[in-house]
Write a structure and sequence with these properties.
By secondary structure, the protein is of the alpha/beta class. It has 3 domains: 151 residues, Globin-like; 99 residues, Translation factors (Elongation Factor Tu (Ef-tu), domain 3, Beta Barrel), CATH 2.40.30.10; 124 residues, Nucleotide-binding domain of ferredoxin-NADP reductase (FNR) module (Rossmann fold, 3-Layer(aba) Sandwich), CATH 3.40.50. It contains 12 helices and 12 strands. It has a 6-stranded parallel β-sheet with strand order 10-9-8-7-11-12, sandwiched between helices. A 4-stranded antiparallel β-sheet has the order 5-2-1-6. A two-stranded antiparallel ribbon has the order 3-4. Helix 5 packs across helix 7. The chain is globular, with a radius of gyration of 22 Å. Belongs to the globin family. Two-domain flavohemoproteins subfamily. Its EC number is 1.14.12.17. It comes from Lentibacillus populi. One of its GO terms (molecular function) is heme binding.
């Protein structure tokens, strides 16, 4: 992306868009919440694409508000938000978002701005944003077009959804189960980069809409299968039980067919780096970490790996025996376990009770000059980021990914 993307916008238009940044910061959530309400009223078929749980939690509207704000703030130089554009484009590719969806989004975003801002959304403001949205949409469409083409050109690559057969189902813990997938047509399928994810298309009896959910691939890319390890989301407070995770746990068995999209995502392991690899996970955040761990053992057998996992206790700690065995078989692996609330049966199977904190983490790591990857619940990730910054880890060496819509790493 270059500044050519915005040269078609007159300076007056760009100035008007940038002038809306303060009000977007103040009322962005209101605008995007109203946007989704209007869009789903007029295009209920789009509920087949958007995660309705994230809608109820407000995560999706916050993520959209942040994207709109960033685009407005950088309208002169959209290349400044290229990493954010690419991250969103990966998710769009995984969900099979098409160019024809963008005019629908633009129309309802402008309607929502007018509804929420009232007189502040003058004709000049709306006209400026209509032009700016067209430019921003074109950037996303072109980025995604290139990604679709790249995926299609891979050996065994495909666009849209492809049927895969569940060839094995393994219970990993009280709440996490792994599903091993192979193409139902028996044809080749592409390997992926450690850390990437797929989208599962769930068509559940009694549900009015299709449900799409993204799950990280949890094994090394050359295993001959795709493996996803899914946490069953039970009802919690006002949030109902996870529709898709419970469907997978209770109704999908060995031999079942699941339509999935091709692997996507930019949270990927740098396999050119030879410095120590630090993998830190919380709960089901272990899924991309397991892929990175297994891939590094095979591709960089001499590289030092520190794998640190935090869980409530051993009952919900998935793949603990796998990691323990890998650590005993490979001298370069240093595995540590932290339990917040260990049970008596967990005695001698964890290294720390409580949480991963600065003092303990720095006592087990050899250096901050390493490549750090972490994934887990929002609060866990924010705590890890603060800890790594306190440890003076370079920003370029800190890598993370939120499950679901992007969120702020600082709080």
């Amino acid at each position: 992306m270059t500044t050519q993307a915005t040269t078609g916008l007159e300076k007056d238009t760009r100035d008007i868009v940038k002038a809306t940044v303060p009000i977007l910061q103040e009322r962005g959530d209101e605008i995007t919440s109203r946007f989704y309400q209007l869009m789903f009223e007029n295009h209920p078929e789009l509920k087949n694409i958007f995660n309705q749980t994230n809608q109820r939690k407000g995560d999706q509207s916050k993520a959209l508000a942040n994207t709109v704000y960033a685009a407005a703030a950088h309208i002169d130089q959209l290349e400044d938000i290229l990493p954010q554009v690419k991250q969103i484009a990966h998710k769009h590719k995984s969900l099979n978002i098409k160019p024809e969806h963008y005019p629908i989004v633009g129309k309802h975003l402008l309607l929502a701005m007018k509804d929420v801002l009232g007189d502040a959304a003058s004709d000049d403001v709306i006209n400026a944003w209509e032009k700016a949205y067209g430019v921003i949409a074109d950037v996303f469409i072109e980025t995604e077009r290139q990604m679709y083409q790249e995926t299609k050109n891979k050996v065994g690559g495909w666009v849209d959804f492809r049927d895969f057969k569940v060839v094995d189902k393994i219970v990993e813990s009280d709440v996490i189960t792994s599903f091993y997938l192979e193409p139902a047509d028996g044809n080749p399928f592409p390997i992926y980069q450690p850390g990437q994810y797929i989208t599962v298309k769930a068509e559940i009896e009694g549900e009015p809409y299709t449900h799409l959910r993204q799950y990280s691939l949890s094994c090394a890319p050359d295993e001959g299968v795709y493996r996803i390890s899914v946490k069953r989301e039970d009802a919690h407070g006002e949030l109902p039980a996870g529709i898709v995770s419970n469907y997978l746990h209770s109704q999908i068995e060995k031999g079942s067919i699941l339509p999935i999209s091709a692997p996507s995502g930019d949270f990927t392991l740098n396999q050119q780096d030879t410095r120590p690899l630090i993998l830190i996970s919380g709960g089901v955040g272990l899924t991309p970490m397991m892929s990175m761990l297994e891939a590094t053992i095979k591709q960089q057998p001499e590289r030092e790996i520190y794998y640190i996992h935090a869980a409530q206790n051993g009952n919900v700690h998935a793949m603990k025996e796998v990691v323990r065995n890998l650590a005993s078989e490979h001298e370069q692996i240093h595995a540590y376990t932290v339990y917040d609330n260990p049970s008596p049966a967990d005695e001698n199977f964890y290294d720390k009770e409580g949480y991963i904190d600065y003092e303990w983490l720095t006592s087990i790591l050899p250096t901050n000059n390493a490549d750090f990857y972490f994934c887990g619940p929002k609060g866990f990730m924010q705590a890890m980021y603060r800890t790594l910054k306190q440890y003076h880890v370079a920003e370029k060496d800190i890598h993370f990914e939120f499950f679901g819509p992007a969120q702020a790493i600082t709080a």
